[in-house]
């Protein structure tokens, strides 16, 4: 999985799972600038409540 794929999946479903968030945190040291920007955007969407923390059914 890439940050871009995770971003698109989270935006389309409105949910990010704990495992996906853990992966982002564990991999952030190796992100490119574009991946960092996507991760920051994901965090902002979480903060605003546009993406919920939970599980997909």
**Shape field:** globular
Number of domains: 1
Mean pLDDT: 94
Distance between the termini: 19 Å
Number of strands: 2
| Oligomeric organization of the protein chains | single chain
Write down the Rg: 10 Å
Class from helix and strand fractions: mainly alpha
Q: Tell me the major beta sheet.
A: 2 strands, parallel
Helical content stands at 55-70%
Helical element count?
3
**Beta-strand percentage?**
5-15%
Low-confidence region ranges: none
Order of helices and strands: HEHHE
Give an overview in words.
It is a single chain. The chain is mainly alpha-helical and 57 residues long. The protein has one domain (3-53). 65% of the residues lie in helices and 7% in strands. It has 3 helices and 2 strands. It has helices spanning 3-13, 18-27, 33-48, and strands spanning 15-16, 52-53. The protein has a two-stranded parallel ribbon. α1 (3-13) runs parallel beside α3 (33-48). It is globular, with a radius of gyration of 10 Å. The two termini are 19 Å apart. The mean pLDDT is 94.
Write a short abstract of this structure:
The chain is mostly helical.
Reconstruct the topology from this structure:
Elements: H1 3-13, E1 15-16, H2 18-27, H3 33-48, E2 52-53
Parallel strand pairs: 1-2
């Amino acid at each position: 999985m890439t940050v871009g794929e995770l971003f698109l999946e989270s935006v389309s479903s409105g949910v990010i799972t704990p495992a996906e968030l853990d992966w982002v945190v564990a991999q952030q040291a190796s992100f490119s600038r574009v991946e960092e920007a996507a991760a920051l955007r994901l965090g902002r969407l979480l903060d605003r409540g546009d993406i919920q923390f939970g599980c997909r059914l």
